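Run: sequence + magnesium ion -> complex structure.
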Amino acid sequence: MSRIHILDKSLASKIAAGEVIERPESVLKELLENSLDAGAASISVHIIEGGKRLIKVVDDGSGIAAEDAPLAFLRHATSKISTEDDLEHIMTMGFRGEALASISSVAHVTLKTKRRGEVAGTSIVIEGGSEPAISDEGCPEGTSIEIKDLFYNTPARLKFLRGAEAEYGRILEIFKRIALVNPERRFRIIHGSGRALDVMPGNLRQRITDLFGVDPKQLIEIDTPDLKGFIGTHELTYPTVKYVHTYVNGRPVRDRSINRAILEGYGQLLDPGRYPFIVLDLKTPPEDVDVNIHPTKSEVRFKNTKYIYDLVKYAVRGALTAFSTRPVSYERPQTFRAGAQTGRPFLAEQGERYSPSIPIEAPLSLQFEEADEATKNPEFLGLTVIGQLWGEFIIAETPERDGTIYIIDQHGAAERCAYERLKNAFASGAVKSQALLLPERFETTPDEKEEVLSALTKLSEMGFEVAAFGPSIKSGGETFLVKSVPDILSGRASCHLVKELAQEMAAFGGSSKVDEKIEAALMRVACHSVVRGPRALSSGEAQALLKDLSKVDFAGHCPHGRPVVKRISRGELEAMFKR
Ligand SMILES: Nc1ncnc2c1ncn2[C@@H]1O[C@H](COP(=O)(O)OP(=O)(O)OP(=O)(O)O)[C@@H](O)[C@H]1O
Ligand SMILES: [Mg+2]
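>> structure
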């Protein structure tokens, strides 16, 4: 690494100024970035009291030369840029020479560092921006830095910090964000005396699994010269944008336009208010992106925004399309219970005309018990099914000569039926639950733990038996077991679903919204109980679905508010052809 020097006034004035350190999380981000710039292969972090008492980062990077070490704490002192031209070509995480100066003015700092191959190292102690106390120190190669009692001398800022668990939650989030995009390096974090997360060098797919426990089968790789990473399938979604990890040349950034491009790429595959799992690193020439627009370096400006937007949108769309059109063989699900076997031969029964492009994991939930439900929509009983389009829509007609054509969205209809059924069962306190053969376990961050704990009672009313199992080493919160699930899920447990439900119920806030929370949660369960994507139905199956539709209090919409049925009268059809 080059020598540390003070930037000249003119260059220093061109650097985006402002508050760099807002809370423990921002300290950790700066320290991790310094370790990355120093070429560390292994970085370990020790946190006490959510970072309010201690944030310690130890790396095995280049170290700092003894004569440079005191300079590192001066404003605009950096080894990473020298000229204005350098500012146009930034490939390092740091460039402002600002972070250590800011941190050391609001905390007690001890730095120990030794360059590779040198005999002695250096120790520097600074107390809240005081003159540095420097001494020789026998220490390992690399750098270790301890930040104690953050904001001890700025009570106004100290007041704004949240509890230790909440601050640790944020720390863990930035730690994961950075560890995620550097899978070739080892990262460790320990909170207090117990909880630790330790991820070994490997590839990105492995790193995603290590950090988030995501099933690799739910990830689709994007690997082009400009864009690298993974996107989740449309089944892996969350109620927050927190799992959208975007980077520019390895730098974590939040960019509305990139986020919009991602959502556009998914299009109709995402329900409103749901966000996907994303890890995408944009590889752009440094001169095409300005990283010097925000004091915390978390925002960037692209020279050609439209190009970036299209690049991301079409890469996401292309990856989803390629994934959904993978050739798979179609096997009729064994467990499917068809309804009345009436009607004409059907497309699916003609075999070769239809081959679904998405693997079928479980049958559509069409069949419900014959409870004493009154028929609410007799119109559906009188229909004759004439066919199925693309494995997704049922086409049916009314018997009269001048009748009406019905186009029914299979997935929306099945979801609607499941939702009605579940809502009624919930209202009467009789949701049937099914014990899982093997309980499934999932881990939570401190924030998620609170969400799950506060939702336990409602979850059990919905048919989910979830129990706390002990602290989660990996995520910092709690490990939970899912022991039973509502029977409409046919024994399919989804830890992901349980987390979503807890988040959904927590995200609404005030108690007056309880009904809305429950409704949204029931919709989600209903949504999970049916299978998405194209699926060939036999005539009997299609008729059974119509029969179920006739029984629900049917407002013409699926639980997500999308229409389920479109009717076209003979008159409308004739008008289309100007007859
Ligand atoms: N862990 C480390 N290993 C080696 N050198 C380091 C380390 N941390 C800091 N340095 C040296 O100290 C200098 C000052 O660090 P500081 O984080 O304040 O500024 P910067 O990284 O250059 O820019 P920025 O303010 O954008 O982070 C760096 O330029 C680097 O030379
Ligand atoms: Mg830095």
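>> summary
Residues 286 and 532 are 41 Å apart (CA to CA). The pocket of adenosine-5'-triphosphate (ligand 1) is lined by residues 1, 4, 30, 34-35, 38, 59, 61-64, 72, 77-80, 94-101, 143 (CB under 6 Å).
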